[in-house]
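Show me a record, fold above all:
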Amino acid sequence: MQILIVEDDARMADALSAYLRRDGYTTRQVGDGASAVAAVGPETEAVILDLGLPDMDGLDVCRRIRGISGVPILIATARSNVEARIKGLQAGADDFVVKPYDVRELIARIEAVTRRTRTAPITLVDQAVIEIDGVAIDLTARLVHADGLPVELTPKEFDILAVLSRYPGVTTPRDRIIREVWETDWSGFSRSLEVHVASIRRKLNRPELIVTVRGVGYRLMGA
C-alpha cells in the first residue's frame, strides 16, 4: 500500500515514513498543500494529512483532494477541539487522529478506512454527463434521464446519485455519502439515506442499479 504523507515538519514526516516502511508500506512525502494535491494519483491508497501547512489550510487541501479522488484521507493534527474534527470530516476526511499519537493507532486507523473503501480501485469520474445502463446523469444541469425520458428527483436524491456516479465501480461508505450530501457526520441520517435510495430505485425503474453492500454502503451496479 502506498501512503502519501502530507507534513511540513520534515523530521516528523521522515520518522513516520520510516516506521510505515518497516511495517511494509511504501510512502511518499510532501510538505505543502499544492504538492499534496499534485501527488495524488492512481497509486495513492491513503493520505495522512496535517492541517498546518505553509501554503494553504489543510482543510482546503482535503477538499481539493476529495474533488479529484475518493482515496481515504486520515487527518493527523495538533488541533484537538471538536470543531476542528467536525470541519475535517465535513471537508471529506475519513478519520481524524490528534497529535501526539501512537503510530500503532495511526496504522490501525489507516487499515480501517482503507478496508471500508478497498472494494475496487477508486477513480473519480470527471465528466459533466455520466451514462450508466441507460441512465444519463447531468451533473452540471442537475438533470436525470432514463431511456431518454426525464426523471424527477428531489435535490437530496440527485445529490446521492451524483456521489455514487462519481466513484465508478466503488462501494461508497454510508458515512461518506451522508457527509457529502447532508454535510454532517451524524449517523442519524442513515435511515433517511435508505429511504432516499429506495425512492431513486423506484423512480429510475431500475431496482438493481444501486447495489446495497451490507455493513458498508452502496455502489452503482452498472458503473
About this structure: The helical segments are 10-22, 33-39, 58-68, 82-90, 103-117, 155-166, 174-182, 190-204. The domain at 129-220 is CATH 1.10.10.10 (Arc Repressor Mutant, subunit A). The two ends are 24 Å apart (CA to CA). The chain has a mean pLDDT of 85.
